Amino acid sequence: MAADLLFICAQFDITAATAQGLSTLTLQLADKDLNPPVLLAPMAGITDRPFRDLVMRFGAGMVVSEMVASQEMVQAKPGVRERAELSADVENTAVQLAGREAHWMAEAARQVADRGARVIDINMGCPAKKVTNGYSGSALLKTPDHALTLIEAVVEAVDVPVTLKTRLGWDDALLNAPDVARRAQEAGIRMVTIHGRTRCQFYKGQADWNAIRAVKEAVSIPVIANGDIVDTGTARTALDQSGADGVMVGRGAQGKPWLLAQICHDLYGAAAPDIPTGDDLIDMMCAHYQAMLVFYGSDLGLRVARKHLGWYMDEAGTSPALRRAVLTSRDTDEVLRLLGDALSADAEVAA
Ligand SMILES: Cc1cc2nc3c(=O)[nH]c(=O)nc-3n(C[C@H](O)[C@H](O)[C@H](O)COP(=O)(O)O)c2cc1C
């Protein structure tokens, strides 16, 4: 399959961004440039190496790995180190660590830095019960003093910039992101991303981009706005309302790996992404599918790939019968054949 079709490079035109009046084209993260400041969010089970590579080939400022559990990483539990694997674009990949003990966090940070990570992100936002019950992820918002010990241990352990991703607070009664961000900055954190919801909101309701402004006003390090940014319009509104220095996009990129590049183009004057259609789209999807099979091996790859294929087919409006056939087949070659059919058939319907 035409894997080289994946190598769709975005060229960035600095003057165009200035012409659009955006104050920040290049975001400075320690001595790194995040150019443009449009980042792919970490998403467990989704932003694996094949997906990050694909997003980066269209164009983005930085991509973040899935959350990597620090203790499991150090203990080399099966499948954990793969999550920390850097993208093809090593320079612009952050590896995200989660945990609740300074010792494991620091050791994991050392290991991922030794493996070449240029940025390490600390997860203080995951709302999942199995994470917060272990007092990591967003539960750390309830114990900021303890959170600070993790942050200090990681910053101390590595020379690369350490960033933090968190939420507005635990719940409406504890909206402490500004304070946590300020203390994190004092401890050496170089950038903070805020998902504009509390932990107790999980993913419900609408992200509150206005509330991110309080964090922006509390710190001098770059602040990234996250939550419900699904296109250029929402990216622009999120930046306006929060005053943030950049945006992070998660679910909006599912089935649309070019979305970040599109936002980079619309807001910062990067070259327009070559959004694939017709045969090019089929080639791109098949190449992504094959990259997942190579990365995970056929058995696991077949299963992991299903959610991505589902999103691609949702975008394309594939018929329910074909969708079901693609998502239930256990034969990787058949999936490839069906994928072509699924999208060609839709192309005809759409024509
Ligand atoms: C399936 C899924 C997995 C996620 N995994 C992580 C994770 O590993 N680390 C993290 O910090 N946030 C994680 N998140 C949160 C996202 O990074 C992001 O903050 C959230 O989805 C809001 O952004 P969005 O509306 O652009 O998706 C995850 C979200 C989803 C939907």
Brief sketch in words of this structure:
By secondary structure, the protein is α/β, with parallel strands linked by helices. The protein has helices spanning 14-19, 49-58, 70-74, 80-83, 102-114, 129-132, 144-157, 177-186, 209-218, 232-242, 259-268, 278-296, 298-316, 320-328, 332-350; strands at residues 27-29, 32-34, 38-40, 62-69, 93-98, 119-124, 162-169, 191-198, 223-226, 246-249.
* Element pattern in H and E: HEEEHEHHEHEHHEHEHEHEHHHHH
Please bin the fraction of helical residues.
Answer: 40-55%
Strand content: 15-25%
Please give the CATH architecture of the largest domain: Alpha-Beta Barrel
Rg calculated over all Cα atoms: 20 Å
CATH topology name of the largest domain: TIM Barrel
Estimate the mean pLDDT confidence.
88
CATH class value of the largest domain: Alpha Beta
General description of the model:
The protein is α/β, with parallel strands linked by helices and 351 residues long. The chain has two domains: 3-268, Aldolase class I (TIM Barrel, Alpha-Beta Barrel), CATH 3.20.20; 278-350. The chain is built from 15 helices and ten strands. The chain has helices at 14-19, 49-58, 70-74, 80-83, 102-114, 129-132, 144-157, 177-186, 209-218, 232-242, 259-268, 278-296, 298-316, 320-328, 332-350, and strands at residues 27-29, 32-34, 38-40, 62-69, 93-98, 119-124, 162-169, 191-198, 223-226, 246-249. The strands form two sheets. Strands 3-4-5-6-7-8-9-10 form an eight-stranded parallel β-barrel, surrounded by seven helices. β5 (93-98), α5 and β6 form a beta-alpha-beta unit. The chain starts with 13 loop residues before the first helix and ends with a helix. Mean pLDDT is 88; it is low at 1-25 and 346-351. It binds flavin mononucleotide.
